[in-house]
Amino acid sequence: MAPVSAVAWRSVPSTCVVAARDEVIHPDSQREVASRATRAIEFDAGHMLHMAMPEAVAELLGESARHFVGNSNISPEF
After folding, report:
1. 3-class SS letters over the chain
2. pTM higher than 0.85, yes or no?
3. Which residue ranges in the chain fall short of pLDDT 70?
């Protein structure tokens, strides 16, 4: 296996979600990590964001998938 020559987070567009009311991982720590992403989105929810705001998470995932498929050579028909 070839050695890693680059880290993907520097060249691949990414989205990081911050849970503003998280009591497990402090939101400031999340924001620090999110600052490296192409886009950071903050939701007013706790640690279980996918349980508290499933529609918002689903929409974000769908938006990201549509953007990826629309900007790549990958066919949406897997």
Report:
1. CCCCCCCHHHHCCCEEEEECCCCCCCHHHHHHHHCCCCEEEEECCCCCHHHHCHHHHHHHHHHHHHHHHHCCCCCCCC
2. no
3. 71-78
